[in-house]
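Moderator note: this is an archived Q&A kept for reference. The question asked for a predicted structure of one protein chain; the sequence and the answer are reproduced below.
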Amino acid sequence: MSEIPAKATESEDPSDGATHLAAEAAVPGDAMWQSSPPGSMYDYIRVASFSIGPGGLVDQWSLRAEQLFGIPAARAVGMDPIEAFIDPDLRERGQRKMAEILDGREWTGVVPFRMPDKADGTRGEEGLAEVYVMPTRTAEGEKAAVCIVVDVRTLRRIETDLAASQAIFGQSPFGFLLIDADLRVRRANERFASIFGGTPDDHRGKGVHDYLPRGEAERVAATLRRVLETGQSITDMHVTGYVPGSEERRHWSVNLYRVHSGSGRPIGIAWLGTDVTSRRAAAREAANARRNLALLNEAGARIGNSLDLETTARELLDVVVPGFCDLATVDLYQGLLTGDETPPGLADGSAELRRVAFASAVSDAPFSGSGEPVAVGAVHHFPFNSPCADALRTARPQAVPPEEGGLVQSTLAVPMVAHDTVVGLAQFARTKGSEPFGDRDRDLAVELAARAAVCIDNARLYRREHERALILQRSLLPPGDPEASGLDIACRYLPGNAATEVGGDWFDVIELPGHRTALVVGDVMGRGLRAAVAMGELRTAVRTLALLDLEPAEVLSALDEIARGLGTPGGVQQATRTARQPRDADLSEVYLATCVYAVYDSVTRRCTFANAGHLPPVLVEPGEAALMLDVPPGMPLGVGGEPFEEVEVELPEGALLALYTDGLVESRDHPLDEGLQAFVGALTDPSRPLEDVCDHVLNTLDTHHGEDDIALLMARVQGLPAESVGDWTLPREPRSVGRAREYARGQLLSWDLEPLVDTTELLVSELVTNALRYGEGEIRLRLLLDRTLVCEVWDSGLVQPRRRRARDTDEGGRGLQLVGLLSAAWGSRRTPRGKTVWFELPLPGAEAGLTDPAEALLSLF
């Protein structure tokens, strides 16, 4: 046989270097060749066999030969192979070759053949077969031959594909690994070896732990096992490691897919890695710039929303952790927190600081920074030679060396500077595994700390003013628990929290003559120190006007003029002039206030109300639901020009009266009417102790955590018993003086107040005598017993008594002097039908300091 050269064909199918992938590219789409997945390499290279008997004819024809040549065994057996394969012009030479073979010589050659026809009837293509003829002998010793046939074109295609895949694997600019089922490198390409050193063969048998840190290696190994088990490919997996023998950190983008044998059995994983270190660095720079800008924007929006020092410090940490660092602390100078007026801190940076805030994304343990760990709230100082003290001393950021074996790898100590003054120190730390701080990070940290420092300094100044206003405000409120005749009193005053300015809310309980009590609740509109000062002036004015025993409407009218004068340069002295201003005058400097003024008479249990734009009082009668009293609201104090009305209400025994300011019922979160209804609904059990009722109201209502000042004044009616009142009407005649003494003596003896009889008789005689001499109409004598003894003498005269100093030669004029000497207090007040002159005596056991009647008489002469 002669050898016929064959042309090799190139495969366009790229390969990863795995044998079965290259072979698959060479398999023709012929369903006759195989009906099941290939099981060995012979399925890919198309090998067939047949044998030639002693006569030179085919005596065995394999099934693969049938598939390759398209000649069934029934026809092929007995066929002359020379006639079947060799060109007629070459058959003579072939006959000689066959004779040589049968004489024991091997032969290899390429012969043409035609492939079987296709299923659609299309004639099969011409092919080339490489035939390997091997002489043999039969059992009888006759000469024969065994022939192996290989499809030449398929073989050439496989060789080309293998060469191409080898070139791709070796010349790829990407790191390429073939990893076996034991997760060991089976094969590495030149690119991978150029990065990690050595030759490709040096990497055989290595695992991911030889290239990556332990934690990263465990993660990648788990991913490799998952790909091997599931067959699910991984695209663009980020892997971080270090080049062996250096500290250079590298980043790769890795694609993984499972590789199979010819039978479909998984045999390993293909790893295709791209070095993205430079790309990651550029992306990181851009991301850092965006992050820094976002952090600054967030800092501007979140830091400084509160005027509380500690809250502002926590707002800074909320911004930087974990967006900028893993741990952070804020230390402020102790002097700044205690309100010291001197500039905070010492020049050497070793002054006491208090840790006011700490935040961590990795651990709740106290952060040490420079020195021992410090808990939030602890007072400490940094050693003189420490980086933190140096930062405070120089007002410049310092890097703090990490502790050996510690969690933190990079720390910045940044002074908090506001208006050229260091107010504290912020420390920002990153743990191992995070990127250390760079120059841009340092600049950002300084900017963040500076913004927070300005807000903290503003909060410090505000806190100082707030505390002053709060001290003033509290000093102007009634001390302790107020007491009143015929009333059980309970009150609550809750100033706004440190984040809100002090308001002008106030309340007062003022004892009036005749066992009467004035109840006052008011609110100066506006906030801050000036509002607190205005409140103090108005409260003082109310007490002064109350002691004049004016009617409630008259008190509010006078207060209205005073309020209009508070905003003028002359203050209260300009009240009258301000009141005369036209109604359209500029009120920008006029203080406005609301106020309820009520006078309760414990004898009659009647209460007279006047309102200046304030919220209505709430009354709870025994067995009834709470209701808001219909008191004409009037105009706020300071507006002027409008009269105030009075409403008189008789209060039943045990009734509960509540006066309050808007901080209790008003909020941005709900309408005023809703708050009023909630307050009325909270007064469900007025029979409970008043202190419990107050607590219940405050706990029930949503006061929004100190959004505004709250004043609450509650009073339960306990009228003076009838047996504690002596009331007589006397005709206008001289005998009434004696009768008045008799009535007084008899009443005091019935009350077991014999020690007061002589003094009372003497003073009653003086007042009744004055009423006869200077007054008009009938005379009324009234004795009231409560915590003190009160004696009142009524008449219809409008002229008020006036105390004067009598000369030695005068026979009279010493009566009121005597009253002043012997009584604890005395005075007079107008009534709707005249006037009342009264005096007050302490009960036995509390009369220390009173003058003996005989001594008082002698002192007047």
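Archived answer notes: Residues 40 and 512 are 117 Å apart (CA to CA).
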